[in-house]
Structures are given as structure tokens and as C-alpha cells.
């Protein structure tokens, strides 16, 4: 009786702690995290999720059985003063065999889906897959579509329902490509190709992240996956293929082609065009300030080996600076004026651009949608 009331008092003292733990766990719902791997949206993502769910189920079962037996033994066989020494089981061959065989069987049961999953994830996608070359840079992502002759940066557009085959490498240090809703992390290396594939089954904009420490701005090496219906993807491809070097007029956006901003961004609805004085001033500055040396404005047949991200459709992207800032006019101006203040160590130097020049450059870039 005395023991029981002491136990109840102890439990009462722990009640606030239980409440705090419950609150914290309630915050762990995947709804609050855009980069959760617990809500897979692709076949590849589900393979990993299934393995983790299977393993968790076995782990919970083992935990309940072991802890249940332990608690039962503690209370049922509690020793009292004067009890004789209980019988000893040390060296009992039968028990030793039983508790060696049971974990071995459980591990074997987990190994079967795990090994099957490893083989599935390492498989080479079929010829109908859309190939995308992923190139890591400090600190942004380049995406090239060889079959479509397209290049873009930091926004990976993919069609829903078609497998994408990613062939990945980097131009500098080791990075790790991680689109959490679609696939696991995959390290990318210089001078070596790693591969990843997945088939998205849900349209939308989803965030991804470099998952390997790659320098000072590793945390600002994000990207977005734009999963689109086959029709929307085809329209995007057709539009991007108009963003080419010649004829010059093709680079100017038509009102029809201007898409609304991706989720969360406030892209200006009215972008200036070639007739606009701001645009013309920006176009001149783009040459004069040397932007053109690092950034290409052609999505189609873009030059390879450019140091900076491709800007052919920068005006339509949801973010700038590889997920660092929302793509608003104010942020674009801030970035152009002083990229080192926003992303210290980034390869883009402060070019001594005056505020009015930055505005003109931003107007010029905004028109590139
Ligand atoms: Cu690239 Cu971290």
C-alpha cells in the first residue's frame, strides 16, 4: 500500500513532463514540414518509406514484448526480505539458443524487404525515362535536359507520371542532392556520375536541399521541384525552347507566356519589355557590368560550363539565390546591389552597381520569364 502511493506520487510529479513531451510530439506532424520524407510522392520515395514503416512495426512489437515482459517480471516477482535466492539461468543452453534465434529471425525478416528495396532503387530506368543532368555548384543547382536541349537552374521541372533519370555530378566539391518528397539523398561528386530516378505522382511545387556540408553557404543551396501534369510540362518545354539566342525578339515574353508566380512568391505581374527604357538600360548594364560573362540568358542550346546560374526564365522563378530569397523586385534589387551581404562567399562579387542601375537590371531580368 505504502509502495503503491509512493509510485502514484512519483507519477504525479512526472505529469508536467509527460504533457510537454506530448505537446512536442504533436508538433512532429509532417504537415508542418515541407521537407518531410514521411509523405512520399513517388514510387522511389515509397520504397524507402515502406522499409522504414516495416522496420518501425517490428521495432515497436519487440519493444512492447520486451518492456511488457520486463515490467511484468518486476511487479509479479518482486523480491521480499527473507526470500530465498531465485533459481539461476546462467549457462542454460535452451534459453541461449532461443534468444539468439529470435533476433536472427527478426533481422532476416527485415533484411528481405531492405535488400529488395536496395536493388529496386539501384535499377536503371527504362528508355522512356526523361534524362536530366544535375550539376552541383557552390551553391546552386544546374539542370540540363539533353533530349530537349534545355538548361535551367534551381527549379527542376518534371512531368508527373513519367520516370525522371537524374545523372548527377558537380563542378567543385561534394554535394548531396535531396528532393525529400520524391527520393532519398544521393551524394554528387566531381568527375564521377551518380544516378537517381523517381516517378512523381503528384503535381505541385516541392522544396529540396543540398544535404552534404559543402562550404559556408551550404544551407542556402536549396532548389524546388516543379512537378507538372504532362500537358503543363510540355507547355513549359515549348516556352523554354523559345528562350534562345536568336532571334532576339524571341527572348521577350508575351503576356500569354507569363505564368503566375509559384507558390508563395510575389513575382511582378507586369514585367517590362524591350520597349521599356528600364529594360533597355538593364540590357546595356547586363553587358557593361560583365553579368553576361557568368550568366546565360538562353534556356535553349545554352552554353556549357557557365559559372553562374542560367537566367533565361529568372523572372518567373519563385526564388533567387538558390532558395535564399523570394523572387520579388525588392529582393532582386537587393541581391544585384550586394550579393555578398545576402550570401557571403558566393562567387558573384559586388559589382558596385548603383541603386538605379540595380533597378534597371532587375526590370531587365524580370522580363525574362
Ligand atoms: Cu552543396 Cu551543401
Q: Give the overall pLDDT as a whole number.
A: 88
* CATH-defined topology of the domain at 130-366: Immunoglobulin-like
Shape: elongated
What's the CATH H-level homologous superfamily of the domain at 130-366? Cupredoxins -  blue copper proteins
| CATH architecture grouping of the domain at 130-366 | Sandwich
Unreliable stretches (pLDDT < 50, length at least 5) are 248-269
> What percentage of the residues does DSSP assign to strands (E)?
15-25%
Please report the distance between the alpha carbons of the first and last residues: 77 Å
Bound molecules: dinuclear copper ion
Quaternary assembly? single chain
CATH class of the domain at 130-366: Mainly Beta
Binned, the helix content reads 25-40%
Counting H and I runs of at least 4 residues, what is the number of helices? 9
**Class from helix and strand fractions:** alpha+beta
Describe this structure in words.
The protein has helices at 2-26, 43-76, 93-122, 230-240, 277-288, 291-294, 329-337, 339-342, 355-366, and strands at residues 130-137, 140-145, 150-153, 155-159, 163-170, 175-178, 186-188, 194-199, 204-210, 222-228, 319-320, 325-326. Strands 3-2-1-5-8 form a five-stranded mixed β-sheet. The chain is of the alpha+beta class. It is elongated. The protein has nine helices and twelve strands. Helix content is 38%, strand content 17%. The termini are far apart.
Amino acid at each position: 500500500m505504502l509502495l503503491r502511493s509512493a509510485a502514484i506520487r512519483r507519477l504525479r510529479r512526472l505529469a508536467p513532463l509527460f504533457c510537454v513531451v506530448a505537446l512536442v510530439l504533436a508538433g512532429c506532424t509532417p504537415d508542418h514540414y515541407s521537407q518531410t520524407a514521411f509523405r512520399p510522392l513517388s514510387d522511389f520515395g515509397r520504397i524507402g518509406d515502406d522499409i522504414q514503416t516495416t522496420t518501425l512495426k517490428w521495432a515497436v512489437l519487440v519493444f512492447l514484448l520486451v518492456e511488457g515482459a520486463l515490467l511484468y517480471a518486476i511487479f509479479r516477482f518482486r523480491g521480499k526480505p527473507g526470500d530465498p535466492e531465485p533459481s539461476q539461468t546462467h549457462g542454460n543452453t535452451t534459453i541461449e539458443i532461443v534468444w539468439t534465434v529470435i533476433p536472427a529471425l527478426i533481422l532476416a525478416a527485415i533484411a528481405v524487404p531492405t535488400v529488395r528495396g536496395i536493388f529496386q532503387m539501384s535499377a536503371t530506368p527504362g528508355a522512356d525515362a526523361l534524362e536530366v543532368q544535375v550539376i552541383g555548384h557552390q551553391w546552386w543547382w544546374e539542370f540540363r535536359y539533353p533530349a530537349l536541349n534545355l538548361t535551367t537552374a534551381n527549379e527542376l521541372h518534371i512531368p508527373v507520371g513519367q520516370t525522371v533519370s537524374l545523372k548527377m555530378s558537380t563542378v567543385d566539391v561534394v554535394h548531396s542532392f535531396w528532393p525529400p518528397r520524391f527520393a532519398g539523398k544521393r551524394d554528387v561528386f566531381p568527375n564521377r556520375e551518380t544516378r537517381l530516378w523517381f516517378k512523381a505522382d503528384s503535381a505541385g511545387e516541392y522544396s529540396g536541399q543540398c544535404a552534404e556540408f559543402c562550404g559556408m553557404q551550404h544551407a542556402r543551396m536549396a532548389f524546388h521541384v516543379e512537378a507538372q501534369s504532362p500537358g503543363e510540362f510540355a507547355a513549359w518545354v515549348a516556352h523554354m525552347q523559345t528562350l534562345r539566342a536568336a532571334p532576339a525578339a524571341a527572348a521577350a515574353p508575351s503576356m500569354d507566356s507569363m505564368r503566375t508566380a509559384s507558390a508563395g512568391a510575389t513575382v511582378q505581374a507586369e514585367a517590362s519589355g524591350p520597349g521599356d527604357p528600364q529594360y533597355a538600360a538593364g540590357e546595356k548594364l547586363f553587358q557593361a557590368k560583365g553579368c553576361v560573362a557568368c550568366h546565360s540568358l538562353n534556356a535553349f542550346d545554352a552554353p556549357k560550363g557557365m559559372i553562374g546560374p542560367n537566367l533565361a526564365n529568372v523572372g518567373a522563378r519563385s526564388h533567387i539565390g538558390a532558395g535564399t530569397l523570394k523572387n520579388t523586385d525588392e529582393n532582386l534589387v537587393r541581391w544585384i546591389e550586394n550579393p555578398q551581404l545576402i550570401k557571403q562567399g558566393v562567387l558573384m562579387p559586388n559589382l558596385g552597381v548603383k541603386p538605379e542601375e540595380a533597378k534597371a537590371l532587375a526590370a531587365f531580368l524580370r522580363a525574362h520569364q
